[in-house]
Amino acid sequence: MANMTLDEITEKYLDVLTEVGNIGAGNATSAVANMLGLKVDMSVPHVNLMEVEKIGSLLGKEEDIIVGIMLGVESDIDGSMMFLMDLPSAHRLVGRMMMMDVESLTEEQLHSSDFGEMELSAIQEIGNIIAGSYLNALSQLTNLTLTPTVPYLAIDMAASILSVPAIEFGMVSDKALLIKTDIGGIDMPINGFYILMPENDSYEKILGALGMPV
Amino acid sequence: MGRMIKVGMADLAVCKPPDNLTTLGLGSCIGIALYDPTTKVTGLAHIMLPDSTQIRNNQTIEKFADTGIQKLYDDMIKAGAKRGKIVAKIAGGAQMFALKDSGMNVGARNALASKAKLKQLGIRLLAEDTGLNYGRTVEIYSDSGDYVIKAVGKTPKTI
User: Fold this and answer.
1) Which residue has the higher pLDDT, B119 or A212?
2) What is the pTM of this model?
3) For chain A, which residues make up each domain, given as ranges?
4) Are A92 and A102 in contact (CB under 8 A)?
5) Closest CB from B26, B97, B152 relative to A152
6) Which of A65, A112, A156 to mutate to test the interface with B (most CBs of B within 10 A)?
7) Which of A35, A92, A127, B119 is the most exposed place for a label (fewest CB within 10 A)?
8) How would you classify the pairing of strands B124-130 and B87-92?
């Protein structure tokens, strides 16, 4: 891939990467849905090639507080992935996990950026499940070994959380290739999305493993 | 009332009273505010990475501490600021996720590189609010040189 630019990759392999995101996110979404007994809907993944400085406003307003779970991917493919969701979604998922009455949460509670120890570890656990199932699906699809690191959590302004992937991409390029999949709740409102961020060399491995000539 | 001009990621701007400058949600990035109290020429840069010489794709000079601060300084002088009068305040450089990175995290490296560049240009650093693990929104006011820093769940502070 040394001679190939990101633009060419996108042109040529958009469909394949979309499918990669689809399978990973599909598996992760159903893992969470099953664990919590929820119906969850998922969009077709968007494979976006964007300028790194635009990543900060990927979610809309830069100062909106979001919950971000990030983890590294190691072994055959290097990179990282993130799962991001808004505050009400995080409160609903955690409430559901802790067997609380989610319906009775007030607007104020739903938009609070304060989470207790228990709630934080519940979010972390959701991160674990999402990562594990996303990467498992990719691993089965490609026959590559993908090992997630421990997930890390941040609850802060969207732009400040998204500066982390922006910087990571910014080190190698002015542009970033993101595989973004939105999820939405059916029986309760959930808004979130996954971003898979393979390092540039890893695209070759993913595509190669899927039988695409690179 | 002047405008509050928004500076994006990997971007910079210069203004004069009554206008002011802001950048939203700094994470590991640094917001470098330059100010000349004698002419009230005010500048703000939002840099992402420490060193343009370490990166192959470095066309966007506003992205890096070394080239971005140089550009901001040059733009300040063009706008009428006086050499030797310009002072600096910086904020940001957080580590948003406690990743067990090898070596120093990029936020800390951004802060160090920004300070090194300021020193090289002979610009005095008056105050800083860097590091830790939370995002910051900053506003630089051109009439006073006040640098206001806002973070989630914290009282705004002025440096």
Assistant:
1) B119
2) 0.86
3) 6-209
4) yes
5) B97
6) A156
7) B119
8) parallel
Is residue B60 within 8 Å of residue A167, measured between CB atoms?
no
Q: Which of B12, B26, B29, B111 is catalytic?
A: B29
β pairing state of B157-158 and B20-26? unpaired
ipTM: 0.89
Of the candidates A75, A82, A79, A47, the residue with the CA atom closest to the CA atom of residue A163:
A82
Classified by CATH at the fold level, domain A6-209 comes out as Chemotaxis protein chec (3.40.1550)
Interface of A with B (CB under 8 A): 52-57, 62-63, 65, 68, 70, 72, 113-114, 149, 152-164, 166-167, 170-174
Cβ–Cβ below 8 Å for B27 and A155:
no
B109 interfacial to chain A (CB closer than 8 Å) = no
Which of A197, A165, A63, A174 has its CA nearest to residue B10? Answer: A174
Are B25 and A53 an interchain contact pair (Cβ–Cβ within 8 Å)? no
Minimum mean pLDDT range among A94-98, A99-103, B85-89, B130-134: A99-103
Whether residue A109 is predicted with pLDDT greater than 60 in this model: the reply is yes
- Contact check, Cβ <8 Å, A163/B26: yes
Average pLDDT of chain A to the nearest whole number:
81
pLDDT digits over B135-159, tens only? 999 999 999 999 999 999 899 999 9
Q: Which contiguous run of DSSP H or E holds residue A88?
A: helix A87-97
Q: Shortest Cα distance from B143 to chain A (angstroms)?
A: 25
Question: Which residues on chain A are in Cβ contact (under 8 Å) with B137?
Answer: 63, 157
User: A163-187 pLDDT, tens per residue?
Assistant: 888 888 787 777 777 777 777 777 7
